[in-house]
Structure formats: structure tokens, C-alpha cells
Q: What sequence folds into this?
């Protein structure tokens, strides 16, 4: 009998990028690993639920959705999300950061201090520096201050991040851009008194992601489909994205597209899922 798994998404930890599976199984997907799976034929993609709870109606969701949630479960998830600004009473300390994804692609964000740099790895930040630490609402005010005073966004579409990964400037230029913006940020009037400023200290993830020598992507997997097959060798992993060397060139797989499907081991080394050329318009329904 064919064994079937349901993916719970890609997570970053001390051992690098790992795909999780229902039941607790984990698969490392670092550079050089092989990814090969087939979507069970005749199946549909079902909602992954919210906040650790299964979708009560197992609703069918679009193959192009990176959230893999029905409207009701997505609403429930947002209702308890710091990222979507619906939680105001979290007592934990938070950090404000500047994240660099490419020339001119810098965003400001916040993350719970206890999570360390996990949020930056999850977003695919090539480089970053902390700006400050303090209560949640103070961190929020600092984030808003940078958006208003310095025109620094709090979201950058993944499509923009993917395009520049194969042509990054030297580390020194990345650090210089971050340092200049960090200096302007901490010097702003109106900085929240309860938010402790952090000194500039750049952290670079290019080696962790495997971006050195990364070739330009030929295409991006747009969705998975019942009966579809995807097989390739991991060249790099950044955020939720895997850059795969396949029989159709270098393709980028957003692993969030895997959730909600029943998957099995591929018996053929090929690519039969829909792929769009790099630069073509894509659906963007996830944050950051």
C-alpha cells in the first residue's frame, strides 16, 4: 500500500531548513538534498485549519494559495496574530529589526524576543540588524515611525525577494545599506521611551541559505495539482522557498504550496506541476 503524508510546512532551526509532516516526521532539505514527491491522484487540497485546530468542514482550498486556509480559518488565524496587528496585550518583550533582501529591498518588522532570529530566517532575510527591544506596543510604534518618517515598508512580496537572490551585491554593500538606515532610524525623534535602542550589528544569512553561486531561476512552481510530480536537488533554501535543480532547469518551490495536499514518494524523476516563468505575475496572499 502506498504511504501518504501531509506536509505541515518548512521550519528553520539549529539544523537548518526542515520539512515537517503530520505525525511528527521531519525531513532535512539543506543544500544537496533531493526533493521528490507526487501529489496523490484524484485528491483535492483541503484547509489546514487554524491555531492548532483542524478545519471543521475540511474545506477545499485553491492550489495557488500560500495560506492553505478557508475563509473562516484564515479569519480565526488573523484574530490571534501579532503580524496582522490584532493582538495588543502580549506581555512578552519584542524586538524591532531591519531586514535586507536585496538592493533597495529593506523592511522593518517586529518579533517576540524569545524567538531570536527565527523570524528572519522564515522570511528569507539575507541580512538583518536589531533596532531595539521593549514592550509590544512600543515596538509597534517604532515600526510605524520608520514607515512614516523613513518610508521603510513592513512587507516585501516574495516575488521581489526571489528575483534578486541570484545576483546579490557583496556583503560589504549589504552591510553598508543596513548601517546607514539603522543610524537614521535610531536618531529619529519620537522613538518610544520604553524601547531600548540596539547597537548596529549585521547578521548575514547568505551562507546559511546557500546563496553563494546560486544560478538564476528559470521558473517558479505556481501550484501543485492532483497527480503532479516534482523532483529536484536543493541548491538553496531561503525563507519558505527551495531553489531546485530539475530536468526543467532551476525552479523555485514555495513550500507553503505543499500544505493541505496528500503527498507520496515520487517514482519518476520529472516535473509535471504548473510552472510560470520567472518574472510573470503571481498570487501573493501571504504576509512578508
A:
Amino acid at each position: 500500500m502506498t504511504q501518504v503524508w501531509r506536509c505541515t510546512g518548512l521550519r528553520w532551526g539549529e539544523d537548518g531548513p526542515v520539512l515537517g509532516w503530520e505525525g511528527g516526521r521531519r525531513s532535512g532539505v539543506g543544500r544537496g538534498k533531493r526533493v521528490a514527491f507526487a501529489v496523490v491522484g484524484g485528491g483535492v487540497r483541503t484547509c489546514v485549519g487554524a491555531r492548532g485546530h483542524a478545519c471543521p468542514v475540511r474545506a477545499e482550498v485553491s492550489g495557488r494559495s500560500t495560506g492553505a486556509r478557508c475563509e473562516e480559518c484564515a479569519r480565526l488565524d488573523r484574530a490571534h496574530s501579532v503580524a496582522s496587528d490584532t493582538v495588543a496585550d502580549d506581555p512578552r518583550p519584542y524586538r524591532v529589526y531591519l531586514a535586507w533582501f536585496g538592493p533597495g529591498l529593506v523592511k522593518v518588522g517586529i518579533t517576540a524576543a524569545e524567538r531570536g532570529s527565527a523570524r528572519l530566517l522564515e522570511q528569507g532575510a539575507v541580512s538583518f540588524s536589531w533596532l531595539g527591544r521593549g514592550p509590544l506596543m512600543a515596538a509597534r510604534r517604532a515600526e510605524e515611525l520608520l514607515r512614516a518618517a523613513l518610508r521603510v515598508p513592513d512587507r516585501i512580496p516574495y516575488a521581489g525577494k526571489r528575483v534578486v537572490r541570484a545576483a546579490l551585491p557583496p556583503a560589504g554593500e549589504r552591510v553598508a545599506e543596513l548601517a546607514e538606515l539603522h543610524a537614521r532610524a535610531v536618531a529619529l525623534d519620537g522613538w518610544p521611551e520604553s524601547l531600548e535602542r540596539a547597537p548596529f550589528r549585521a547578521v548575514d544569512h547568505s551562507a546559511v541559505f546557500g546563496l553563494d553561486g546560486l544560478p538564476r531561476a528559470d521558473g517558479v512552481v505556481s501550484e501543485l495539482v492532483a497527480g503532479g510530480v516534482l523532483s529536484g536537488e536543493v541548491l538553496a533554501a531561503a525563507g519558505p522557498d527551495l531553489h531546485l535543480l530539475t530536468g526543467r532547469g532551476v525552479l523555485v518551490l514555495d513550500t507553503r504550496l505543499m500544505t493541505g495536499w496528500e503527498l507520496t514518494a515520487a517514482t519518476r524523476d520529472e516535473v509535471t506541476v504548473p510552472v510560470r516563468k520567472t518574472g510573470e505575475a503571481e498570487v501573493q496572499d501571504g504576509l512578508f
The radius of gyration is 20 Å.
